[in-house]
Design goal:
The structure is a single chain. The chain is mostly helical. The protein contains 1 helix and no strands.
Length: about 110
């Protein structure tokens, strides 16, 4: 009887050991699955962040292009205004010279008539 009890005890311990091994393997498998899932999620997040960084860089590039375009427009506008100012001064100078010439001619004419 004692032999049967011992056999039964050994069989039970063997089954418990097998169950423990099965549970350990299952736990390891779940851990591996969870790590893989975490890695997949981290990879997706890294890709999303990289896409966001590329989008920001593109936005920055476009903004810099826009700033450059606006600066060029401002420079051209200032050049045009300066040219217009010089042209007005030239015309003003011509008008002033004509006025001075006319005054001088009138003065000569008046002097000659005396």
């Amino acid at each position: 009887m004692e032999g049967l009890v011992r056999e039964e005890e050994e069989r039970r311990m063997h089954l418990e050991a097998e169950e423990l091994l099965r549970l350990e393997e299952e736990w390891m498998y779940r851990g591996a699955e969870e790590r893989l899932e975490e890695e997949r999620l981290l990879q997706k997040e890294a890709e999303r962040l990289q896409e966001e960084q590329l989008r920001r860089e593109e936005e920055e590039r476009l903004l810099l292009e826009e700033v450059g375009r606006l600066e060029e427009e401002e420079r051209l506008k200032e050049e045009r205004l300066e040219e217009e100012r010089l042209h007005r001064e030239e015309r003003s100078g011509c008008v002033e010279k004509r006025r001075n010439d006319h005054v001088e001619q009138t003065a000569r004419h008046s002097y000659d008539n005396l």
